Amino acid sequence: MLYIFCPHCGSRSQNEFAYGGDATVKRPELNKEISDQEWNNFVYLRKSPRGKHLELWHHISGCRQWIKVERDTSTHEIFKTYKADELTE
Amino acid sequence: MSQDFRLDNIGMVNRNKKISFTFNGKKYFGYEGDTIASALIANGVHLVGRSFKYHRPRGFFGVGVDEPYAILQLERNNERDPNIRATEQEIFEGLEVKSVNCWPSVNFDIGAINNFLKMFFPAGFYYKTFMWPPSFWYKIYEPFIRMAAGFGEASIKHDKERYEHKYEYCDLLITGSGPSGLASAYAAAKNGARVILAEDKPRYGGSLLTSDVNIGNQTGAEWSEKIITELKSMSNVIVKNRSQVFGYYDHNMLVMSERISDHLPKTQKYLPKQRLWYIRAKEVLISSGSIERPLVFGNNDTPGVMLSSAAKEYIKVYGVLVGKKPLIFTNNDSGYETAIEFKKNGVNPLILDTRKEPSSDIITEAKNLGIEIKYSYVVVAAKGYKKVKSADIAKISDNKKDLSNIENIECDCICVSGFWTPSIHLASQSGNKSEFNEKIDAFIPKKSKQKENTIGSANGKFTLEETINEAFNKGYEVSNKITENNNKVSVPTVVEKKSTEHDKFWCVPLPKGKSYKRFLDFQNDVAVTDIELALREGFRSIEHVKRYTTLGMATDQGKTSNLNGLQLVSDIENKVVPQVGHTTFRPPYTPVSIGAIVGREVGKHSKPTRKSPMHEWHEKNNAVFVDAGVWLRPRYYKQGNETLFEASKREAKNVRKNVGVCDVTTLGKIDVKGPDAAEFLNRVYTNAWLKLPVGKARYGVMLREDGIVMDDGTTTRISDNHYHMTTTTAQAANVLSHLEYYLQLVWPELNVNVVSTTEQWAGAAIAGPNSRALLMKLFPNTDVSNEALPFMGYKEADLFGIPAKIYRISFSGELAYEVNVESDYGNFMWEKIIEVGKEFQIQAYGTEALSTLRIEMGHVAGSELDGRTIPHDASLEGLVSKKKDFIGKRSLSRSAFIKPDREKIVGVVPLDKTTSIPEGSYIVKDPKAKLPNPKLGHVSASCWSVEYDNPFSLAIIKDGKNMIGQKLFAMSPLKNKTIPVEIVSSHYVDPEGKRVRA
Ligand SMILES: [Zn+2]
Questions:
Q1: What is the distance in A from the centroid of ligand 1 to the CA of B743?
Q2: Does the complex come out with an ipTM higher than 0.90?
Q3: Cβ proximity of A19 and A60 under 8 Å
Q4: Which CATH architecture has domain B294-418?
Q5: For the segment B286-299, what is each residue's pLDDT rounded down to a tens digit?
Q6: How many CB pairs under 8 A join A and B?
Q7: Is B944 helix (H, G, I), strand (E, B) or coil?
Q8: Which of A39, A64, A75 sits opposite B740 (nearest CB)?
Q9: Domain B668-839 has CATH 3.30.1360.120
Q10: Tens of pLDDT, residues B114-139
Q11: DSSP helix, strand, coil percent of chain A (3-state; round to 5)
Q12: Model-level pTM?
């Protein structure tokens, strides 16, 4: 079970969080004309990297904030965590 | 039977407390502190089971977790417990155990015929033998295998025992209280670290209890007693016995199972049977010790053949002799220590040493005691079927290939020592890649993956002096990283007998003309020939060999077999062991009971039950409840002998005719507040929200980005910047997370906050033609006329002094209102509604009637919004704005979603107007078409229409709109029904929606 540092609450066990997928995906702006392909990429296509991955976690049993976690997908090492509005390196 | 093999003056069991227990129905005596194994051996019992495959007789091989054979079935306090290791389970008064994997009895086992058919049971026999013909598998092969195999029977009764989970945090977790565990715990604790020391056995001290050593002028046992007493008295230390750390998981989370009551006749009040500890440790020291390796020779699985270290522990800890004519077969000095213990207790052992001319302190001591030793000697084969009676022994040539001078000698046990294998399981689970150490012919941990260090014999340190020094240093070092106290304690002096090098020889060749089975894996009956066969058949990877032969599998996890298996593979392949590599160790290290894993999450605790404030009223009024997510909701209120069908029909009819009231507290409720709330709702919902006036409600549908309907519900504008959103019961939590996602990550510029208010409001839906009349009496000071409170209107009102909110919304399709009050007043509200409603023939109605009402009205719910439908499919396209953008809108123009024959919701009525259509039925054109019959769609919900008094269903079918009027068939292969039906509009009752606006 991972031990995740929530920037709002401190270190908490994984069972307080829900996983939220790739944090680098950016939703297309509202009312913007975009192609089927671009939209499909946004809705469905995700990278599944082996190694460093910036991902979203939702502290549902804590502060209910969405946070960004930089984690190695093969070793589970967590390098850094960010608040939702914090700029990532 | 008397305890013929019990010694009088040695051991740690309590001689003042005699305990009786039964084994296979026969009564035996032992002492408090005995295990089943030690007590049975004291009584001369060695036959305890039958082997997995060949049903060969099985005795005891080890003395703890290493035991591969003696797995028994336990009866305790009327509960049945399988998979109990006799070497671990302590006896208590009235304990009942029996053998497993034998039928009809352990002495006469019919399956032993397998032993004579062993040519048919080679490696991979399951894959080969039982494959053909395929039809034989279910009826013949599987039942036979199941009857003949297995390690016991799980109870089918509900387990009444209590199991608990505990979360703990510490600076340092130490797994094992042998010399390295004790020393490091002491050094770390004295340096101020918060330490947990876990010991799997009842007694602390590990090898210190059995070895002839001296630490700080005390015996090993005395020193360990002193250290443990001091550790127990320290407030920064938790010391736990009967506790096995069995799993090492990510981020230094380790899991330990504590057997609190298993050694007692009955679980004590206020205590659990077992407790599972989830321990998050800043640092871990793995001090799990090592397990002696077997030597491999003919019939080495005969009862009476056991590890020499086990024989020593039976003497020193339990005061029990495993035999009175012992043969010690060793390739190193450890066997001598066992021989010396026999000799000291009046028994004459014979040592066979594979080495040519070894010399060391221990060997000299053995010689001085007059123990007979034969060098360059091996055991060729054990003789005797249910117990060792003699052994064929032989001289072995210097190149270890040829046997000579074979003779048979009498003996009643063979104690084997093939040197030591460090228990690296936990380190390996943590991700540590081990390395092969040529000096000890075994793997030891290499580079720490997580915050873990392995110390003592688990790290290949086999002298006490090395172990103690390393442990004191490591204990100080890792604790100081955390506490920075710099408080170093001095290391005691250690006196021990020096030993010499071991022999790498481990597998005795077969004499000419003999084909003895030589076992590697004692739990899974894997012999040398099985591995040879697997390699001949082309299996090369050790992981494949393992799975093909079952070497190192099952509960034993290869504790005693792993290395010898690897040795054999490398010998045959002309490789060295590190080239072969070892298989991955996975948790659990030892079996863990399902009860401990589940903990308190049994029965209703697996999901906390949520009840509305009106729950007690429902109970008093004979409600029959149904699970709705985590909530309990009344399904119907039973009157007399009514069935579900009769009651729900009565309740629904009464809503259509008079007035009904339904508890809708469980609906999800979310407060949406802030100056940008309208803009936010406009992006979340598919329809327009910017112009909703204060005091008005609107029905909304929200999508996921992929265009699929996520949820629906009404949202009401309470004031300029305040909206009250409702969600379905099931989706409440998901919708809140969804809203938070968009507010926090996608549109942080919107000034909006959301918070769940589900539990803050109790809700009652009042529905039916009499509902307005009832409302006028409930709220005499509020104008609830159609003009003042129109459909989709909202008002705050006073309910006999209680502030209430009235929403004029309808799920039933009737004139209806939802009244909300703060939860604490829920019951008051409900009772008032019932009381005042009497004159209007009010009846409470449950979810079944609610479903009936919504189905015949064609209102969609979870069974239609099933995660596959877009708004069009559920006839919600009128709510999809063409002007503005919203979540998921772009997906709706994808080609699959705009196909002209896209699925659509319709109504379905059976032609005979009497046969109910099972939910899930397929709608097909031709019921006799060749399978798979092309389906047009499926029936999503069925009810008995109270309006028309005939069955009615909703279905989602291809090109639904153009199907209306067609005669098709509903097929349910599950219920074996084919029903001729007519497709009608989904709005079966009041299609114009006049009633809700009345
Ligand atoms: Zn948090």
A1: 16
A2: yes
A3: no
A4: 3-Layer(bba) Sandwich (3.50)
A5: 999 999 999 999 99
A6: 58
A7: strand
A8: A64
A9: yes
A10: 665 555 556 665 556 555 566 666 66
A11: 10, 35, 50
A12: 0.89
